[in-house]
Amino acid sequence: MITVKPAPRQAAATTEDQPMLSVEDLRVTFTTADGESLKAVDGISFEVRPGETFGVIGESGSGKSTLGRAIVRLLDPTGGRILYEGDDIARLKGRRLRHKRRELQIIFQDPNAALNPRMSILDSVREPLDVVGEGDRASRTGRALDLLDRVGISAEQARRYPHELSGGQKQRVNIARSLTLNPKLVVCDEVVAALDVSIRGDVLNLFAEIQRERGLAYVFITHDIGVVSHISDRVAVMYLGRFMELGPVAAVAERPMHPYTRALMSAEPVPLPSHLRQKRRILLEGEIPSPLNPPSGCRFRTRCPHAQATCAERVPDWRPVAPDHFVACHFAEELAPG
Ligand SMILES: Nc1ncnc2c1ncn2[C@@H]1O[C@H](COP(=O)(O)OP(=O)(O)O)[C@@H](O)[C@H]1O
Ligand code: SF4
Ligand SMILES: [Mg+2]
Question: Any idea where the ABC transporter domain is (predicted)?
């Protein structure tokens, strides 16, 4: 089990502040090799608050990575808006886009994804600064070494090449690299999934410490509910391109309002205090349907144990069930236990 030291949160700052990022009705449609339209992200709206960790959970194929990549404009959204400091980054181009992008970074599951195998660790971490051309080479080297030191990579290790480091060390290097341009938000896409279980806790703790030191916001994407429940302030549950539920992590863990959330939470051993653990295991049967042809009405209905005729006919509204807690299910209140 992963144990992460609880991070003292800036409670007032994370709940009351204006959002730093507002995603409005975001859509990303891919055209497959067969010419079909695949709606990987199909109308999602949420806000990220300064300094918070916004968790996104869901099974593989639900569109989490596509959402993360769209937020940092690694891919172009098909529709909707991504408002960041007054600009719609879904539409920005050229120099203004490059400038905003510095403040929005992403770290991937594969520790090798952002590291050039032919560049030393130091060169890889200094590279974003070299591109921007900030200061002289010596000061850029100094800054890269400081950041590497902060994530636990020594000056001696910094001279090595990626293949000479372990997966955990490389992920630490990626954290350092993502921080070089002082981002305000970092999308973390399954950042500990490829690491040995024994070191995941340490790397997650590092993420939490860095956040506290720098007041960073994270969008923390994972299929592992244990990870998200430890590190997040709020969590969104994603299924087939849409959010099913969104709320403070304690509220969602204590009283999940969507049948899909309950199934997800009962399927994994969530490291929660015993009184919060789900007593009964709800089996999530079958595969996630193809986003090429999602079910009508509620898209979870083909796997929902409570589906009724209405569920096939009407798309459930995205509606509040408690302060700051939203759900898309016609029968959320009557189905939720307790
Ligand atoms: N470049 C692409 N072209 C076509 N389909 C894609 C592309 N990227 C992702 N998809 C599809 O979009 C859906 C969501 O994928 P993804 O965002 O990777 O989900 P997750 O990260 O939740 O596993 C999947 O059905 C996937 O096959
Ligand atoms: S709307 Fe219907 S099918 Fe969808 S989660 Fe609620 S009960 Fe299940
Ligand atoms: Mg993914």
Answer: 21-265
Whether residue 129 is predicted with pLDDT greater than 50 in this model: the reply is yes
Together in a domain, 247 and 330: yes
Q: Which of 166, 182, 198 lies at the terminal end of a domain, its last residue?
A: 182
Give the range of the structural domain holding residue 178, as residue numbers without chain letter.
Answer: 116-182
Quick check: is 121 in a domain? yes
Which of 182, 210, 227 is the last residue before a domain boundary? Answer: 182
Q: Is 314 left (phi over 0), alpha (psi -120 to 50) or beta?
A: beta
Mean pLDDT for the stretch of residues 60-74:
96
Quote the mean pLDDT of the chain.
Answer: 90
Strand intervals (E) in the chain: 21-31, 37-48, 53-57, 79-84, 87-88, 104-107, 185-189, 217-222, 234-239, 242-248, 319-322, 325-327
> Which residue's CA is the closest to the ligand 1 atom numbered 12?
40
- How many domains does one find in the chain? 2
85 found inside a domain: no
Rounded to an integer, the average pLDDT of 321-325 is: 95
Kindly tell me if the per-residue pLDDT of 307 is higher than 50: yes
Top mean-pLDDT range of 197-201, 237-241, 286-290: 237-241
Name the residue of 38, 109, 293 whose CB sits within 8 Å of the most ligand 1 atoms, as the mutation to test its pocket. 38
Is residue 276 included in any domain, yes or no? yes
**Which residue owns the Cα nearest ligand 1 atom 10?**
40
Our mutation pick for probing the ligand 1 site, out of 66, 106, 292, counting the most ligand atoms within 8 A of Cβ, is 66
Of ligand 2's listed atoms, the one at least distance from the Cα of 330 is: 1
